[in-house]
Design the sequence.
């Protein structure tokens, strides 16, 4: 049973008639993902990519039996699109859109509370389950079905790690991009729990970076509940000039900086193996799995 | 987008906050005139987008209009180097001249978006001032937090209790509650990502006044605030960084000799780490956004080629869904045709259209050192930069 995506996943695309929606839905279908329709207000009743287009998510969900949605709606309307999907009780929503205003995401997070939806993103490359399907915009070709789950905040680095894991003779159970924005849906810790519970996953790679506190949350979780499977982490940005990039005001400093050294210390203390460099992630997880037998 | 102190105070005054009376000067003479109009002691404050001004001499309290003019002459047009500006400093093109408001006590108050809870968060401390970061690091300062909810709608009694923990009582407590109310409305209505008052002063006549104000607005929300977008001070961004922003690139100038390009911030940071691990010195951080076209990318390479400190260029690309290797190769080809400089170019292309990207580079006549993986590419770039130095 793959995490998030299986052969029964029926996907709706919000914003399918736009450029990005058109391009990527076609790639997703080529990969074998079951896309059943699209939603574009004002274009309901038309057909696009040989699929029906609907006015509203609730209607589309009723007509097509969709149980997942991918959002390609431009930033100004992306939050409204996500909230519409949440209100239509869509079980899974993946948002690719970049540059959604932060306070819009604050409202989306509030809409998620008590609801039935799992949101991935915004600003996520999506979910890839090799051999089953992709709900996202990632490159494909290097992936292989296998036992390594990958959780990441960064799309191109995920592609790199996927290629390394495959080159190390392993494959991937699922790759999940949680999104690079400060406020997003599902976090690294929840993804880790799902992968540790997943029968197809033998080990997990976590790709973290400077800023935010998600890696620290993972560390706190693992400190309380040691992982049942090997977990390897790469933290990038160790050499980034933190004070310049963040231009930090005191208020942010007072709440902790999220620097690479702190994240690495916390993860190591919780039993996570740190990949020494970005080019050694595949080898590190291979070793960790081999030691486990 | 960061805005200047005087702009932040101007905006916050609309939400009922008390700010010291004053004006902005771009010449020393104007600074003197504002001080004359205000009468009495004034504070002359360099307007740059960086903290740590007081310690660097960027904030001066003076007694007379003549002294205000002298302070203006000292600060205007000069690069102020603080702990947050980097070694080159930032040039103060304006000074804020304000009535000096002696404070009985200084507090710290800020609003930000808390990424863990996904809510707007109020933080505060009963002390404030220039050294609170050090005090907090030493554990001497109690930072209090209150989650305000999504639109800042925390209940009035929760806000009242929070304000009381800052040691505000009686009339000051009432003022504190009203101030928090104004701040949260400003935060939500202006799409701020940070508002910070440090210090927030209790004046001798018993008023709460924002003696300093920092404000960051959400760049992604500026499309719904054209009036706020106009507050951007482009003088504070280097010409290279400005050009990069216009061309869908994230760019930070650094002081080394290896020009670096990657697609995506994560891969960019990984490349930076790797160059440093290989004992090299990055000249910049640059990541190509998914929305960049080949001409944008050509402008980005142009920035690296135009930097006389650059001795080698390292290109680390893993083509993904939105950005394929051939687009980046085309951008590089265009940039190389425009420049008279020839530098060692170390290229590592993987992912979408990697082979097509390599053949495009050949067709453009680019002499590149093609590397199979990123560590080989990083070490090669470092060796070539050292040879060229």
Sequence:
């Amino acid at each position: 049973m793959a995490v998030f995506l299986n052969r029964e996943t029926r996907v709706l695309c919000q914003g399918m008639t736009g450029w990005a929606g058109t391009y990527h839905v076609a790639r997703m279908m080529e990969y074998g993902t079951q896309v059943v329709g699209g939603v574009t207000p004002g274009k309901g009743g038309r057909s696009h990519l040989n699929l029906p287009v609907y006015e509203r998510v609730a209607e589309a969900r009723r007509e097509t039996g969709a149980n997942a949605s991918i959002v390609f709606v431009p930033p100004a309307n992306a939050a409204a699109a996500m909230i519409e999907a949440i209100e239509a009780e869509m079980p899974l929503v993946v948002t690719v859109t970049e540059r959604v205003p932060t306070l819009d995401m604050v409202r989306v997070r509030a809409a998620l509370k008590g609801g039935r939806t799992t949101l991935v993103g915004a600003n996520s490359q999506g979910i890839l389950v090799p051999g089953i399907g992709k709900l996202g915009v990632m490159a494909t070709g290097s992936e292989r079905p296998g036992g390594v789950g990958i959780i990441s905040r960064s799309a191109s680095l995920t592609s790199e790690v996927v290629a390394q894991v495959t080159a190390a003779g392993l494959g991937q159970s699922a790759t999940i991009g949680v999104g690079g924005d400060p406020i997003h849906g599902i976090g690294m810790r929840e993804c880790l729990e799902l992968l540790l519970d997943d029968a197809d996953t033998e080990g997990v790679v976590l790709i973290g970076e400077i800023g935010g506190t998600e890696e620290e949350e993972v560390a706190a979780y693992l400190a309380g509940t040691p992982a049942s499977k090997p977990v390897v982490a790469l933290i990038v940005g160790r050499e980034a000039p933190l004070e310049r990039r963040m231009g930090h005001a005191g208020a942010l400093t007072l709440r902790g900086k999220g620097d690479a050294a702190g994240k690495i210390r916390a993860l190591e203390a919780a039993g996570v193996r740190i990949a020494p460099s970005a080019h050694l992630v595949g080898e590190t997880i291979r070793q960790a799995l081999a030691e486990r037998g | 987008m960061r805005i200047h102190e005087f702009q932040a105070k101007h905006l916050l005054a609309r939400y009922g906050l008390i700010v010291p009376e004053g004006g902005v000067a771009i010449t020393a003479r104007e600074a003197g005139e504002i001080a004359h109009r205000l009468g009495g002691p004034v504070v002359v404050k360099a307007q740059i987008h960086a903290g740590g001004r007081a310690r660097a001499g960027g904030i001066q309290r003076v007694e007379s209009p003549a002294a205000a003019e002298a302070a203006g002459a000292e600060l205007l047009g000069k690069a102020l180097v603080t702990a947050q500006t980097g070694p080159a400093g930032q040039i103060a093109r304006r000074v804020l001249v304000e009535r000096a408001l002696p404070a009985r006590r200084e507090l710290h108050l800020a609003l930000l978006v808390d990424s863990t809870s996904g809510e707007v968060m109020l933080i505060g401390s009963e002390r404030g001032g220039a050294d609170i970061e050090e005090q907090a690091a030493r554990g001497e300062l109690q930072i209090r937090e209150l989650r305000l909810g999504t639109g800042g709608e925390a209940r009035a009694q929760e806000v009242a209790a929070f304000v009381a923990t800052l040691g505000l009582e009686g009339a000051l407590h009432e003022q504190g509650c009203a101030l928090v109310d104004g701040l949260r409305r400003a935060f939500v209505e202006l799409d701020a990502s940070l508002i910070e008052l440090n210090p927030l002063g209790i004046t001798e006549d018993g008023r709460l006044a924002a003696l300093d104000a920092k404000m960051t607005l959400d760049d992604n929300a500026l499309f719904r605030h054209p009036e706020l977008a106009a507050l951007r001070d482009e003088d504070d961004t280097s010409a290279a960084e400005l050009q990069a922003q216009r061309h869908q690139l994230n760019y930070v100038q650094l002081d080394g000799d290896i020009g670096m390009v990657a697609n995506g911030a994560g891969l960019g940071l990984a490349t930076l780490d790797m160059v440093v691990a290989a004992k090299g010195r990055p000249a910049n951080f640059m990541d190509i956004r998914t929305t960049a076209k080949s001409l944008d990318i050509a402008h980005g390479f142009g920035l690296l080629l135009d930097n006389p400190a650059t001795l080698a260029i390292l290109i680390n690309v893993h083509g993904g869904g939105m950005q394929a290797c051939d687009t980046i190769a085309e951008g590089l080809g265009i940039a190389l045709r425009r420049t008279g400089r020839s530098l060692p170019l170390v290229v590592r292309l993987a992912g979408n259209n990697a082979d097509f990207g390599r053949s495009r580079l050949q067709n453009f006549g680019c002499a590149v050192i093609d590397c199979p993986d990123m560590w080989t590419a990083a070490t090669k770039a470092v060796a070539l930069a050292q040879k060229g130095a």
